[in-house]
What we know:
Layout: H1 3-17, E1 21-25, H2 28-39, E2 47-50, H3 54-59, H4 61-66, E3 72-73, H5 83-93, E4 98-101, E5 105-107, E6 112-116, H6 120-126, E7 131-137, E8 141-142, H7 145-163, H8 169-173, E9 188-192, E10 201-206
Parallel strand pairs: 1-10, 2-3, 2-4, 4-7, 5-8, 7-10
Antiparallel strand pairs: 5-6, 6-9
Amino acid sequence: MSTVIVKTEDCINALTTNGFEVFFANTPNAAKEIFFNQILPNLPTKTMSWGDSMTLDSTGVLTELQNDKSINTIKTFEAGVARSEIIERRRQALLSDLFLTGSNAITECGKLVNLDMIGNRIGGISFGPKNVVIFAGTNKIVPNIESAFKRIRNISAPLNAKRHLLETPCVKTGKCHDCNSPQRICNSWSIIDKCYPKKRIKIVLIDEALGL
Length: 212
């Protein structure tokens, strides 16, 4: 059995022990099927929203959910909408029935580690929405908290800053400078040791390198 398989299995077992409900998918499309066939039918959902996640986008879940007229979608990203309105929608999203997003890193001992610019994503994961579903590729699995911090500072954050066309030192160098830039995206950290209430946070772990 390969080291990668053992690492993934250990991570899934640790997450389950820590109260998360975990699903495993081989591909983004399989993750979509798991969500609509096994997860959503068990979650009474009148309102839903999401936090920025390339992995979530890759599954197609968000597009299909937004086409469901029985669910009110709180759109936290929309071109042509004033920033003040977007921020207000992100506040409203914290009271949604369902919140979808990704995770910057998941430790082998079953902890979620995330970093945000304004905190709406980590806020939604931690408290507010009745249920949270996180989509994450197995490339997000790291040995420990220290490795998670290193991964986020020197991979996730610089690439996300570049993706959003920000002008921060890390965009130029590809590594964290602990800068004072007004466009700094490294402002709020979150470490979730255990899921409370149990199974409120569901994780769909996808056996591919996805997202940042």
